[in-house]
Design a protein that fits this description.
Two copies of one chain form a homodimer. In chain A, 44% of the residues lie in helices and 23% in strands. The relative contact order of chain A is 0.13. In chain A, a hairpin with a 5-residue loop joins β4 and β5. Chain A folds into two domains: 137 residues, Jelly Rolls (Sandwich), CATH 2.60.120.10; 72 residues, Orthogonal Bundle (Arc Repressor Mutant, subunit A). Chain A contains nine helices and eleven strands. Chain A is of the alpha+beta class. The longest helix of chain A is centred in the middle third of the chain and has 27 residues. The interface between A and B is large, with 39 and 39 residues. The structure holds a DNA duplex.
DNA sequence: TGATTTACTTGACCGGGGTCAATCCCACCC
DNA sequence: GGGTGGGATTGACCCCGGTCAAGTAAATCA
């Protein structure tokens, strides 16, 4: 389904496209497509060819590497304003990850050629893409560091402290199984560690809600072997 | 030390700069610096500010995340023609990794501003940078997949089979400890697994030299739990 | 609302790979 | 040639976190 009318407005609100002038935005709008996708549906699968990139307008998308027995390793989550799949586009390689909607979502899809045109016309658009890829790279390096150099407790604590919180309260944005996979853990282990932190009086968990009781002691747990 | 004369020739041979025209190349050459660095010396440390990028002309560089007790996690190795550190440059963040020479090496350093100028003038240069970052990202995702979804044996076998070989012979390009770290293993475990593969008659190891005896059986090991 | 699936938790068990320490091997050097 | 020091190997041991299975809570749907 395509609604050219509000597509332009949608695009203009995405960080990636904020630098484009009116003419460029019009071109991009003409080329872009709205994709609405239902919760749990796939945007693409591993092995699919990649002819463009996606931007999340509404909802949340999970990027993951599928494994043998229905397993998976979550690479990252994407929300409104985030672009994903660019790296595969620039490499002209098929996707090696799969993208699945975690909520009913609205995506914007843009053809590779249109991206290249925007790069050619607007260097600041190129810079924005470079910054976006660099940020993604930075995140992955941090993830690799985390998985290799920190034990399970440290990873869980680091995750809790990295989440946005108000009045010392945080929420798991998605199912705990997904968070566990992102942290390189099994759901069982995550559950046990949360329980253990709760018993130590550092947090209180109920459902997706987490109360941070003693953030100083929590941080201390990140630095003990 | 700076030798403007051959710097231009050096630059012109790097994949990154092949698209530049003579004028741009001249500008870049004027701005670039040769850095010679001895084996085991550091190009930069974690936390250093990043004002440009490095290209390897001669030698080999190791990127790694330093850890507490002198430990480290090797992120990747870079050889002639490879650029490294770009991501931190585009993010305006200090390095979160350290770079160390594995051989006596010759690097080319280019200031951030000059890179931005080249991007502004030459969209195909921008594309090249984007492709470079995308490739790096792709590599990291594969590494994350490997560490999370494959056991130690599978990782070692995958590494052996991924290395260039002639007449079924491969070599470890660096100390085994570094390879082990890259694979997310301890040197002890790598040693044991190599021994084990050798006992099974799949390979023969002597020093850095590895003879692949039965590549079919090796590949089979990648797919068993 | 109750029924059925899906998510989460808890327990018992186990094994892959890490740790620590001793030894070996070889490259390098006088 | 023998010494020396760092990398590599090997052995003994153990623990973290995974696996399997059962039970419980929570979400979804008719």
């Amino acid at each position: 389904m395509r609604h050219k009318t509000d597509l332009g407005a949608l695009l203009a609100h995405q960080p990636l496209f904020r630098s484009l002038d009116a003419a460029q935005l019009a071109v991009m709008t003409a080329a872009a497509q709205k994709i609405s996708i239902e919760k749990n549906d796939f945007v693409f699968h591993r092995g699919d060819p990649c002819n463009g990139l996606h931007v999340v307008a509404v909802g949340h998308i999970k990027l993951a590497v599928p494994a043998a027995n229905g397993q998976q390793k979550v690479i990252d989550f994407f929300g409104p304003g985030d672009a994903f799949g660019e790296a595969f586009m620039f490499l002209d390689k098929p996707y090696m990850v799969e993208a699945q909607a975690l909520d009913d979502s609205l995506l914007i899809w843009i053809d590779k050629q249109d991206i290249y045109n925007a790069i050619d016309r607007d260097p600041s658009f190129a810079r924005r893409m470079l910054a976006g890829l660099s940020l993604r790279l930075h995140t992955l390096v941090k993830d690799i560091e985390t998985v290799n150099l920190q034990n399970a407790t440290q990873r869980v604590v680091a995750y809790l402290l990295s989440q946005p919180r108000e009045a010392d309260e945080t929420r798991f944005p998605f199912n705990k199984g997904l968070i566990a996979s992102k942290l390189g853990l099994t759901p069982e282990t995550l559950s046990r560690l949360l329980h253990q932190l709760a018993e130590a009086g550092l947090i209180e968990v109920s459902g997706k809600r987490v109360q941070i009781i003693d953030s100083a002691a929590l941080e201390a747990r990140m630095y003990v072997a």
